[in-house]
Structure to design on (212 residues):
């Protein structure tokens, strides 16, 4: 189990823009993940994703670690930003792109 | 009938004294047998959210409803506003997407 937690921490710290989702960006398996991915793609930055349907251990462990029970989850620079509702709200308010750009730029 | 929804309403009312609370059962828009209480949309307006980032507001609700989320409730769509924000939005919450059939 600690192995899974290490994997999660590694993913979060090494990917400044990271989406945990159901399915893939090309084929989301849940309406909420689909909306989140669409919003993220509209920001025009590269992002990493983890398909939690293929990783049941991460699906089980991440909610406890994040204090966040559901997916999708957007992580920027190692911090949980939120799920679908928050991502869409940020997009509507015009803040999402700047936040994602800032995180993506921090990679170098 | 709607036992889970009643429980959710009670807990949220007690903890947050909302000015506005709407709980919508959207379970029929997702896969599974009829009559479930698995997917809810909650729109809640409370002064208690003032000064809290969205992620913190959601985590507050998740903490209050941890038992439900460990049980029958599979997902919550949360729209959480202060009275000022709610007024500024014209007292409207966004719509939820339909399920695409994954995740079961």
């Amino acid at each position: 189990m600690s192995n899974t937690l290490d994997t999660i921490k590694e993913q979060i710290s090494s990917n400044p823009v990271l989406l945990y989702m159901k399915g893939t960006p090309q084929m989301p398996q849940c309406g909420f993940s689909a909306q989140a991915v669409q919003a993220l793609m509209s920001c025009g930055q590269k992002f990493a994703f983890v398909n939690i349907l293929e990783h049941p251990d991460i699906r089980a462990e991440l909610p406890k670690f994040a204090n966040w029970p559901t997916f999708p989850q957007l992580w920027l620079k190692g911090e949980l930003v939120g799920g679908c509702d928050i991502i869409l709200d940020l997009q509507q308010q015009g803040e999402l792109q700047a936040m994602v750009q800032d995180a993506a730029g921090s990679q170098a | 009938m709607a036992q889970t929804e009643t429980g959710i309403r009670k807990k949220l009312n007690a903890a947050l004294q909302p000015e506005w609370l709407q709980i919508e059962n959207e379970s029929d828009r997702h896969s599974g047998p009829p009559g479930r209480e698995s997917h809810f949309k909650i729109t809640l307006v409370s002064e208690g959210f003032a000064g809290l980032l969205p992620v913190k507001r959601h985590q507050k609700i998740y903490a209050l409803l941890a038992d439900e989320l460990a049980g029958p409730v599979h997902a919550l769509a949360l729209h959480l506003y202060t009275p000022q924000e709610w007024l500024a939005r014209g007292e409207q919450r966004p719509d939820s997407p339909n399920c695409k059939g994954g995740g079961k």
In short: Chain B has a mean pLDDT of 89. Chain B has four helices and three strands. Residues 7 and 104 of chain B are 25 Å apart (CA to CA). Helices of chain B lie at 3-16, 54-64, 66-70, 83-88.
